[in-house]
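cache lookup: miss for this entity combination. No prior model stored, computing from scratch. Input as submitted by user K.M.:
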Amino acid sequence: MSTAAPTHDHGHDHEHHGPAPGLSRWIFTTNHKDIGTLYLLFSLLMFFVGGAMALVIRAELFQPGLQIVDPHFFNQMTTMHALVMIFGAVMPAFVGLANWLIPMMIGAPDMALPRMNNWSFWIMPFAFTLLLSTLFTAGGGPAGGWTLYPPLVLQTGEAFPFVILAVHMMGASSIMGAINIVATILNLRAPTMTLMKMPLFVWTWLITAFLLIAVMPVLAGAVTMLLTDKYFGTSFFNAAGGGDPVMFQHIFWFFGHPEVYIMILPAFGVVSMIIPTFARKPLFGYASMVYATASIAFLSFIVWAHHMFTVGMPLAGELFFMYATMLIAVPTGVKVFNWVSTMWRGSMTFETPMLFAIAFVVLFTIGGFSGLMLAIAPADFQYQDTYFVVAHFHYVLVPGAVFSIMAAAYYWLPKWTGHMYNEKLGQWHFWLSVIGVNVLFFPQHFLGLAGMPRRIPDYALQFTEFNMISTVGAFIFGLSQLLFAYNVIQTIRGGAKATDQVWEGAKGLEWTLSSPPPYHTFQTAPRVD
Amino acid sequence: MGMNRIVAGTAALGSGLASWSGSACAEFALNMPRGVTPVSHDVYHLHMTIFWICVVIGIGVFGVMFWSIYHHRKSRGAVAAQFHESTLIEILWTIIPMAILIVMAVPATATLVRMYDTRDAELTVKVTGYQWRWHYDYLDEGVGFFSTLSTPQAQIRNAAPKGEHYLLEVDNPLVVPVGKKVRILTTAADVIHSWWVPDLGWKKDAIPGFINETWTQIEEPGVYRGQCAELCGRDHGFMPIVVKAVPEAEFKEWLTQMKAKATPQTAQNESHPVSQPAPVSGGQAL
């Protein structure tokens, strides 16, 4: 897609619309870039909080026996690690990217609903303060797993209602963010930016936003039913009162499986922007990418019970969910083939964003393969609730979603800040991350197949070696993220001046703006050919 | 700092690998066990088939990709082509994976149907999950007992050397006859648990208020070990499962002994079989 230069002068004549001074800029801001920055920094902070919890888990698992934490605290760590990483790190990072990028990519001045945008961000710090504070209540934080399965979760102590409220707040924030994104994309596109000209990042976020709007209320319903079961005498999930604990799992995973795609579809979008830039070649199969994304989103609603193959569903149910789950491999395969074809006969260079994007394609595909294995219900009876599952979903979430976020940060940071990041440090960060993440998660496949259940603080002796290796990988991966934080902060503070186009092969409206872009993005609609 | 990390990491990795290749965990460490039941063999073969299909696809896709990364780089003077779509190729790489999936689905379906056929069992055992131990009931025999972790706390707290079957040993194992189809009913008394012995080829959730049904037929005498697989609270990691498969005659003899032991309490056990403390479990120490 080629673009005509915007017809207005970048920013300088709108200085009086610039940011408010001091702290009030960030508290009262309705500017999509400021809110995007807040989301991204919040997400980075939560990434380190959740990462610290992961390191507690891995440190305890370095050797058999109980060394560092007691089993109850261990369970709090696994539960909190998941909640913080999913709702605090990955989702806000993508919302932050959406805030920064969607108006710039579609030729809009800002998001469609700026005040709601402010609100949807500022709920998050309070939600997470509330959630994390439950670690200090009597009986500790939630320890029943992030999936909150009853009856176990109903044994949570004083933390319980606070956790439920925190989940409600995160849900409200996500729904508002999603409504804002849909409203922006459907209403604020430049007149010549037709739907099928939209950059793929915008497409994937449009579809993701619909998923969010569809499933976050389902989660809210499920956790509210837990609350009434505990405090108001209902028996939704209590067999003794005529309820069914498995019903919770059905409702939860009806939210939970689309949630998985909420965390990966924007990643597909990011990678589909980066690979063409560094291959200097247009994305292969743009239309099929859009249709594949939509197919995955549709299928995500009819596969939820593959998380529950062992609960004792009838044979027909098992078969339906097995076949439906296997089908997801088809559109996902199309995406991978398209990325590889985009690279094919390109003219590639390997700056940090491209390295992360390539690692994404390879390692996400490995996660896809183990996903296909997990789809096979009879084999899943062995894999379910083992470290094989842990390896699988960490492959799609860490070198999947998280790598795409890293790639996006390096790719657009020069545009956002006007400064080039330190490329050498970026390369170090990449190589340490890619080595660390594989040393961390690959041995977990073996552990799971050999019979190690997940969510245990201590294990039998035959699992010792792979657990040691995994822990070493965890510390390499975790500590190398400090390089990322350092590099980002240094780039914000200064550095070589970035050009407007930044990357030789970059195409799209955001690269026609100055680096950094004007405070109000496009005041007159740009033309897209 | 980074360099020290790498050195330390490499050293630990090396020592880890060295002790792995030398030690006792040979068969159980890297891959799914083949197991000791017809179903577990089916599952193992299914697992390996799909694994190899994935490996072949992976080599193909990554092979093309890395070939391209090597040859189509700007530093080698590659000039970018500008093609960006081909309907034919898109159709092909939609249809071919679909066909591969159908090839996978056929044996998967057959195995699943077989696993769901619990008819004609010769013995029925009810397994009840508790926080944090298992209770086994031989439904037609009037025999029932708790099965609790027998690893001493000192080993868990690192105050004593760990035994060979650390965390995978119990006071009273489940005893079943070799070669007989045994129906296993799972349920739970408090929260959801999951009963899993990898050598039997499956796990089944134990859900309070509901009874799940499955079966096994162990081919070789031996002791098979597993664990609770569904997070069930504080001591989820400390409720192992031990299944002892013995020849028919030995099983009969064991059953007679158990019945004799249980006789004084038979009347009570009949009326509330699972609410009684186990006669030999040594209490609820955990």
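stored under new cache key. Confidence is low (pLDDT under 50) at residues 1-15 of chain A.
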